[in-house]
Amino acid sequence: xxxxxxxxxxxxxxxxxxxxxxxxxxxxxxxxxxxxxxxxxxxxxxxxxxxxxxxxxxxxxxxxxxxxxxxxxxxxxxxxxxxxxxxxxxxxxxxxxxxxxxxxxxxxxxxxxxxxxxxxxxxxxxxxxxxxxxxxxxxxxxxxxxxxxxxxxxxxxxxxxxxxxxxxxxxxxxxxxxxxxxxxxxxxxxxxxxxxxxxxxxxxxxxxxxxxxxxxxxxxxxxxxxxxxxxxxxxxxxxxxxxxxxxxxxxxxxxxxxxxxxxxxxxxxxxxxxxxxxxxxxxxxxxxxxxxxxxxxxxxxxxxxxxxxxxxxxxxxxxxxxxxxxxxxxxxxxxxxxxxxxxxxxxxxxxxxxxxxxxxxxxxxxxxxxxxxxxxxxxxxxxxxxxxxxxxx
Length: 393
What we know:
With 393 residues, this protein is of the alpha/beta class. The chain is 35% helix and 23% strand. It folds into two domains: 242 residues, Metallo-beta-lactamase, Chain A; 143 residues, Rossmann fold, CATH 3.40.50. It has twelve helices and 22 strands.
């Protein structure tokens, strides 16, 4: 598929993918592994595909140009979904130089145990392609691995951004102006919330650094999902907004429940919030029954979250513990929280939730709400009042 002039997409659309990063990330709409072929005086291959598709990828390249025509390989990122095709490719063309960062060399050697012809680069380094065109390298350290970089093709003004500005989204159209815009936006914010949130301060800094190079950008070509050709800077602007302690007018309630008591609490707390402030978008998720990456996306969008769990074994449920472990690692900023839950005889869950939420960087608006046994009329009234307090906060 032609991207622009002598630049072609030679990657793989993975319609079947439903889990990524092992089982850590849900991909409801599949994904793509975007590889690009630049054919100028030098022929350059930018990134490859995930290992399961390596042979198919190499066979297709062979049909397209002949592998011996590839002069240079650029590895913007060494994670296996981008570099997984390298071992099969290098088996055919072992002398071909690979341009990557110093950390990329370490990562590729660590994963594949091969001493290929690595050519380390840093920000500002250039590769002359002939025909008056160059590739300029830009390190993107910790966006989202230490080895990450972007590559910019002069004259065609294409930024090959790797994981930045991507999304897990399979489509036959492959360009941002041709796909469903609501789906695209949903997958972009999910990708940012679940993968890039902890690096938000670096995102803002790195975008400023890239913009300071004064490189015109006509196309942003990421390594997952669609290519940004219509107003490509729109995704840069969204990243800047998301990196600045992003919040919508939303409260998200997460809960797990054993015998429906904590669910009843959650629903009545939501009722109280809505009565106090009808403009707030209140969303409820049963943690054990909901996709955790979708939950994380809603947490990212929220001003305040409530987390509820019954007390079990002097602690919280395993589903609640699991989602809170992810939330802690993502290091959300400038968000508030509160806890709630039912108990039968000891009732430690709320205190434990408070401790975890504070450790994760949330500002507690109160010390939470506990209800003994299954909520009765008085307990339900307390839940509604508690929700009203949350709405006012």
